[in-house]
Amino acid sequence: MQNDSRPPLAWVGPSDDFPPSQQAWTDEHGANGLLAVGSSLTTELLIKAYGRGVFPWSSSAEPVLWWTPNPRMVLPVAHFRCHRSIRQAARQFAQEGLVIHFDQDFGEVMSACAEPRKDEAGTWITDNIRRAYLGLHDLGLAHCVGLYQGQRLLAGLYFVNLGAMVFGESMFTRVSNGSKVCLAALVHACRQAGVALIDCQQETSHLASLGASPMARADFEQHLKQTVEANPISWPISACDWSALTHPVASHG
Questions:
Q1: Of 52, 146, 117, 100, which is closest to residue 246 (Cα–Cα)?
Q2: pTM, whole model, 2 decimals?
Q3: Domain ranges for the chain
Q4: pLDDT tens string 142-161
């Protein structure tokens, strides 16, 4: 039964501001963090949203839904658990001649992330999402990490970067532990760049096993204010150094 006590949602157009996060729905309303709804999904609106800690997440059959959950799942870079299985996979990939690249083919990584998963009927990475995030990539504000065997993409992830803040979006893998190794490569690059926190958006047991934990939305928003206006990051262009991912010193779990 629908909860009739749910407050109305603000409608956000291309030039509109987002309402205060305190107006977002809660668990009591059946959708923790749902803040606004709209029909537009532009690159400019995405930049505005991420600067406020808001992100889009909806199916192709729905209007654009904007979210800001409380609490927010985040991965403190210093707390990342590079488990033995991840290090072993990285060693195996290195021995097999696989390589990790940043920004080799952003569109291909997004397309792979959009492929239907087991037991899932569809994807939230719609054509509108693809166009908007490709626009972010063209502006140097969205990036990807990919695991390659020659020219074949085996695993990867993509993320948004504003200043010294990284927002993880989606990942995929076609080989065991592939996406975890890509995440380890991103964590290593974040350490090198002085990034303290990776936003994971939604709480899952998988992310928790890698060191992610919930953060109060007010604290997350305060962290954003301190980081999104920082100098832009120059992400690695060449292949990731496997030794950074296979040495026990790099592990925090």
A1: 100
A2: 0.93
A3: 10-70, 73-250
A4: 999 999 999 999 999 999 99
